[in-house]
Specification:
The chain has 161 residues and is mainly beta. It is built from one helix and ten strands. Strand 9 and strand 10 form a beta hairpin. It starts with a strand and ends with a strand. It holds the Pfam family T6SS_HCP. It comes from Bosea vaviloviae.
């Protein structure tokens, strides 16, 4: 199933080239990944959890666009962005369902890598953030939206938000 992924960086300087009606000027993302780990100790017979969760930086890949030099500048100078929002959607029914929404706050562009082949110039970058909210909205059999689930966490304070 075809899906579209957009990233909005709330800044007066970081604009992408999306012409999409609902995501104009946002970055068009090709792929992304992000996760959390927590060291377990069940194999030592001392309980299952040992401490603080470790959230990775979120990684993104996109085709080169006008935002690339600004992302590099942002990373190089350590500029923080108030909020970034990733939205992923798929076609369904009469509307396109935005089924993943990741909102990040107090965001630092922690790395930027440029790469190229004879096909496309690409930009890979990572975002480090202090707080997030992840929302998932399943697609109902009718093609519309079903009840969403969500989780908010303040990484800096190691507490649910």
């Amino acid at each position: 199933m075809a899906e579209d992924i957009f990233l909005k960086i709330e800044s007066d300087k970081v604009d992408g080239e999306s012409a999409d009606k609902g995501h104009k000027g946002e970055l068009e993302i090709q792929s992304w990944s992000w996760g959390v780990s927590n060291a377990g100790s069940a194999h030592r017979g001392t309980g299952a959890g040992t401490g603080k969760a470790s959230f990775s930086d979120a990684s993104f890949m996109m085709t080169m666009d006008k935002a690339a030099p600004i992302l590099m500048q942002s990373s190089g100078t350590g500029v923080h962005h108030k909020k970034c929002t990733l939205t992923q959607r798929r076609a369904g029914g009469k509307e396109q369902v935005e089924f993943i929404k990741l909102t990040m706050e107090d965001v630092l562009v922690s790395s930027v890598q440029l790469s190229s082949s004879s096909q496309d110039a690409m930009v890979s970058f990572t975002l480090n953030f202090a707080k997030f909210k992840i929302e998932y909205t399943p697609q109902a059999a009718s093609g519309g939206k079903d009840a969403k689930t969500e989780f908010s966490y303040n990484i800096a304070e190691n507490a649910t938000a």
